[in-house]
Amino acid sequence: MLEEKNNLKAWLYLLPAIILLSIFTFYPIINAFILVFLENYRYIDGSYTGWTLTGNISVVVNSGLFWRAIQNTIFIVFVSVPVSVIISLFIAVWLNSIKKFQGAYQTIFFLPYVTNAIAIGLAFAVIFSTTGGLFNYFLEAIGLSPRVWVSTGASWGRAMFALLVFITWSGLAFKIMVFLSGLQSIDKQYYDAARVDAASRRRVFLKITVPLLSPMIAFITITSFIGAFKEYTAIVGMFGENLNPGVGRNMLITIVGIVYQSLGETYPGATSEAAAAAIILFFMTLILTLFNMWVSKKRVHY
Amino acid sequence: METIEIKLQNLTKVFQAKNKEETIAVNDLDITIPAGKLIGLLGPSGCGKSTTLYMISGLLKPTEGRIFFGDTDVTDVAPEKRGIGLVFQNYALYPHMTVKQNILFPLENLKMDKEKALERAQFYADLVGIGHLMARKPVQLSGGQQQRVAIARALVKEPRVLLLDEPLSNLDARLRLQTREEIKRIQKETGITTIFVTHDQEEAMSISDEIVLMQEGIQQQKGAPQDVYDKPANLFVAKFLGSPPINLFEGRIENEKIMVGKAQFGRAEGKKDQKVVIGVRPEGFNIVERSSLKVTVDFVETIGRDTTLIIQKPEGAVDPEVLKAQQEESDEMIDGIEEGSIEETAPEQKATFRAIVDADNRVKPGDVIKLSVKPHKMFLFNKDGELI
Predict the structure, then answer these.
(1) Does any domain span residue B387?
(2) Digit-coded pLDDT (tens) for B17-45
(3) From the CA of A126, how many Å to the nearest CA of chain B?
(4) ipTM of the assembly?
């Protein structure tokens, strides 16, 4: 009797969250899985001509853009995540070790997090611009010749490089903050003990800091991988809606880019193609996350 | 293992708070710690004993003064180069490493040959009695076992000095008793100069070769436990050592007689007339036929071997102000001493004192008895708490 009452109360408390999640998360997910199997679905009137098992998926996979999107996405995921995790870890350790102006530095490093991604993208586009850009200016200063990075004529490698610098940089703030809070919760006595035991700074970092921070590292890695799979805003911010340096289209398209572009089309079946791309992305993310969790089970010390 | 003497010279530590307020944690400490001995740094919390220990370890820099290991001045030597083993109050075992990895850690830092390191780690693990737990993680160990791992980790690099910060405070009463014997044994077997910090006078007295008693950053007395107990240098030392604590009476010296109210406690030859505080150890009383110290027994606590009498203090023995001061002090002592029983601070007890007498004396509550005071169990202090 008592238990039932409590259950009712619990559901009542959960209700607002459940309603919102149902409308904006659960329903779209279920709907996406249904849309994939509809033939010539039109979202305007909801009409469709029949069912298909792999039709929409094969349209997406054979579209020509798909493999480029996969390549771009995977490149972004496997470069930006490890690089930004490692850099932010070092910055957090450094921030934690300085004594003067720690608060000021923390604020500076956190600012990117509260800045709009599109705005930062525009700023980075300026930094990487061919003439008058800071980056080319820097290259010249160290004796290298300037290159085209984000304008017409930029190679895929250069454009991707500029994009990765931007993505990595804008992801640092949140990671640094999480690592910093993790570092500050580590008992100082471990470091005193390591000092008395003559552990080198490298060993203290690898044998004490990293293992004791491993729950945070696992959390950040998994969420960053998921975030990187969904990358799209950064590309729009830096290269515009054509997802291409200068004129041309889709050089830097990602899977989410396909989703958005398909959603923008009105021909029959376009929405189903977007759903198909989304589901492909879903399974890629799922597999990698499961792998991540399997690794962290072995490596994370709670 | 090489043993060395440790010398602290004018050691001072001043902590400065953000608002520039200064706290003198350790004040002009001069101590020589003989080689190969076990020394207890004893005092109430906040007396500077842990600060002293951390200065010896090198983790804290002294504001003034020098520290010598043998003939070498190590004041400016980094902790890792001092050759010390340190056991932290909470052990600071690395939670992600097994017992074996924890003990091996200092040796790996020294880049010792792997096989030799393993052998040494096993030797010290066996020495402290945790050799069979090498594969466990610290969370899988009891408090006592963790403490032994911490000691093994401190000993494994064969330091010249072993420092222990409140090593027993996280253990339950029974384990504490057992572990302190263990520490004594390990220290004897290794012959390593050992300093340990404690607020528990019983713990310090039971295992130390010498104790150093501190209060407010100042050394109060140093010596063999029995000597310090038998010849306290001042009122603080007399009160801090001993369980049950020493009895205090307001009194005076009159014509070389020690008087409390109308009762005579003894003679003070060659001492001029003055007001004094008289301290008498609970075991310092005899029940006698004739004495001017005639008192009423309130309670009798029998434990078989001997009997503790809780007795009303004679008239004039308690000055209301002293009563208040005593109350405050014993509150402080309670903060420091975990084992301090509530009984000792209950206000109604303050008008009474304790006498431990032979169980053969069949005394009942309400009895009026006559007592004499053993002169060597009685100490006289002036109003500043100095021994006279």
Answers:
(1) no
(2) 888 888 889 998 999 999 999 999 999 88
(3) 45
(4) 0.77
